[in-house]
Specification:
Strand order of the largest sheet: 2-8-7-6-5
Order of helices and strands: HEHHEHEHEHEHEHHEEHHHEHHEEHEHEE
Largest sheet: 5 strands, mixed
Number of strands: 14
Number of helices: 16
Oligomer: single chain
Shape: globular
Strand content: 5-15%
Bound molecules: ligand F0G
Structural class: alpha/beta
Helix content: 40-55%
Length: 463
C-alpha cells in the first residue's frame, strides 16, 4: 500500500505492453459519427480514443495471467486448467460445484433454465438486463426490490445497492418457495449505478431466504468491488482483509452466476457456482448441449487459467485502492465542474445525469444520446447512453413513447487500462461541454429495430 501521507494513488502496476491509440480530430469525428448514424455502437474501436463503453471484457491482463495462458491445458475433458479454476472458486466463493460458461449471460441462461419456471418471480436489488431477459424467457417475473435510497441519483448513501428486506420478506411470505424459486442479489448493482450492498444486508437476505426455504444466489460480476466497499464503509469491517469479507459475503449464498469479464480480470468467461447437488447435475446436462463439456464450458483451457489467476489479483488491496480511487477521481472532477452524477461514485463507472445537466432537451429528444455524441465529437471518448434510447418503451396504444426513469450516460472504466492522465483528459473534455451546454441540441431517431434498439438505431441531430 502507498504511504498514507501522500494523496496521489499511483497505478499499482508498470506498463509492459502498449496498445497505440489512434488520434483523431473533431472534424474527422464529425464525419465518422454521421456515417455511424450518431450511434456510438456503430463506430469502429479504432475510431475511438478513450473507450468507456464498458468495463466488461476490457481489462488488461497481468504478466502472471499471460503466463497462465501459456500453461493452459486444452484437453477436452479433465483439463488441469479447470481444476485450477475450480480450486480458486472453491477457495474464494466456497461453492461445491463449479461450472464454467462462455460468459455471464450463459451462466444465467443455464441456472434459470434449470431452476425457474412460468409464473414464478425472482426478486433482486436491481437485475441487470441480461439477467432480467433470461428470467423473462422462462416465463417468470424479474422484480427489482432495491431500497428507496437506491432510486435517488443525487442522494449520497453508502449502500444504495441494498435490497428492501421488508418488501422481500412480504414477497416470500405471500408467494413461498413455490412462487419464488430463488432470490438474487447483484453485487455491485450495475443497473442502479454500480452501488454496493452491505454485509449486514446480505446477511439479512440469507436469513430471510433460510426462514422461507428459498435458495439465495449472487450475481457476483463485481464481487471484489462490493467487498472493498464493505471494508471502506461498513462499521467494524475496516480491519479485515478484503478476501475474508468476500469469502463471508459469497458463502452467505447458495450459489452464484459470474461474468469473469468484470472482476475475473479476464477478457472472456464466466461460471456458475452452487451447493445444490441435484441442480448441478441438471445444469451440467444443459451445459453440455450448448456450452461444452463441464470442465471447459465453452472456454479454452487458457481462458480458465486467466480467470483462476484474475480472481486473486482482483482482491489485491493495492489494486482495489487504485480502482476505487480512479473511479471516485473521475466523479470528483466532474462534480467540481458542475456536472451532476449519480452519487456516490460506483465501483466500475460514473453515471452522468444528462437529464439534470441538459434540462432544455426533453426526454423525447434523448438528452443522454445528445450528450454521449457530443462527448465523442469533442474528445473521441465513447460512453454509453442509459436512458430513454436504451430503456424507453413504445406505447402499446401507439401514443408517445414512455421515457425511462432517468437519462444517464455511463462512463465505465476498463480495469488497469487507462492512467490518471487519461482520466484528467476525460474530465477536461466533459467540463468544457458542461460550460457550453446550452448549445447542445437533442436527437431524433430516424431508423430503429423492433427490440434492443440502442445497439443499431440511427439518429439525426434535431434542428
Ligand atoms: N450481470 C451484471 C451485473 C452485468 O453487469 C453483466 C454484464 C452481466 C450480468 C452479463 O455478463 O456480459 O458476461 O454476459 N454487463 C456488461 C456491462 C455487458 O457493460 O455492464 P456477460
Amino acid at each position: 500500500m502507498a504511504e498514507p501521507r501522500y494523496r496521489t494513488i499511483i497505478e499499482p502496476h508498470r506498463v509492459k505492453v502498449v496498445e497505440p491509440i489512434h488520434m483523431t480530430t473533431r472534424a474527422a469525428r464529425e464525419e465518422l459519427l454521421a456515417a455511424a448514424g450518431y450511434n456510438l455502437f456503430g463506430l469502429r474501436a479504432d475510431q475511438v480514443m478513450i473507450d468507456l463503453l464498458t468495463d466488461s471484457g476490457t481489462s488488461a491482463m497481468s504478466a502472471e495471467q499471460w503466463a497462465g495462458i501459456m500453461r493452459g491445458d486444452e484437453s477436452y475433458a479433465g483439463s488441469s486448467s479447470y481444476f485450477r479454476l475450480e480450486a480458486a472458486v472453491k477457495d474464494i466463493f466456497g461453492y461445491r460445484h463449479v461450472l464454467p460458461t462462455h460468459q455471464g449471460r450463459a451462466a444465467e441462461r443455464i441456472l434459470f433454465g434449470c431452476a425457474v419456471g412460468p409464473g414464478q418471480v425472482v426478486p433482486s436489488n436491481n437485475h441487470f438486463d441480461t439477467t432480467r431477459a433470461n428470467i423473462e424467457t422462462q416465463g417468470a417475473e424479474a422484480l427489482d426490490l432495491v431500497i428507496a435510497e437506491g432510486r435517488q441519483p443525487a442522494l449520497d448513501y453508502p449502500f444504495k445497492g441494498n435490497i428492501d428486506l421488508a418488501r422481500l420478506d412480504a414477497l416470500l411470505a405471500a408467494r413461498g418457495p413455490r412462487g419464488v424459486p430463488m432470490v438474487m442479489l447483484t453485487l455491485t448493482n450495475n443497473s442502479g449505478g454500480g452501488q454496493p450492498a452491505s454485509l449486514d444486508n446480505i446477511r439479512g437476505v440469507a436469513a430471510s431466504c433460510r426462514r422461507a426455504g428459498v435458495p439465495f444466489y449472487i450475481d457476483a460480476c463485481r464481487f471484489a468491488e462490493n467487498a472493498f466497499f464493505i471494508k471502506q464503509r461498513e462499521a467494524g469491517q475496516a480491519g479485515r482483509p478484503t478476501i475474508e469479507i468476500a469469502r463471508e459475503m459469497l458463502r452467505l449464498a447458495d450459489g452464484c452466476t459470474m461474468s469473469a469479464k468484470k472482476d475475473g480480470l479476464a477478457n472472456t468467461g464466466g461460471f456458475i457456482g452452487t451447493n445444490d447437488d441435484a441442480l448441478a447435475a441438471r445444469m451440467r446436462n444443459l451445459s453440455i448441449l450448448t456450452e461444452g463439456f463441464p470442465t471447459y464450458g465453452g472456454l479454452a483451457g487458457r481462458d480458465l487459467e486467466a480467470i483462476a489467476q484474475g480472481l486473486y489479483e482482483v482482491l489485491d488491496e493495492s489494486y482495489l485502492t487504485y480502482r476505487m480511487r480512479s473511479t471516485a477521481y473521475l466523479g470528483d472532477g466532474l462534480r467540481a465542474a458542475g456536472v451532476p452524477i449519480v452519487e456516490p461514485p460506483g465501483g466500475h463507472a460514473i453515471y452522468i445525469d444528462a437529464g439534470a445537466l441538459l434540462p432544455h432537451i426533453p426526454s423525447s429528444s434523448y438528452p443522454g444520446q445528445a450528450l454521449a455524441c457530443e462527448i465523442y465529437l469533442a474528445g473521441g471518448i465513447r460512453s454509453c447512453e442509459i436512458g430513454s434510447v436504451m430503456l424507453g418503451r413504445r406505447d402499446p396504444a401507439g401514443g408517445a413513447e414512455i421515457p425511462a426513469a432517468m437519462e444517464l450516460v455511463r462512463l465505465a472504466l476498463p480495469r488497469r487500462v487507462y492512467t490518471q492522465s487519461h482520466v484528467d483528459y476525460v474530465v477536461e473534455v466533459i467540463a468544457d461541454i458542461a460550460a457550453r451546454k446550452q448549445s447542445l441540441r437533442g436527437m431524433t431517431i430516424v431508423e430503429q429495430p423492433p427490440a434492443l434498439r440502442h445497439f443499431t438505431a440511427r439518429f439525426a441531430p434535431v434542428g
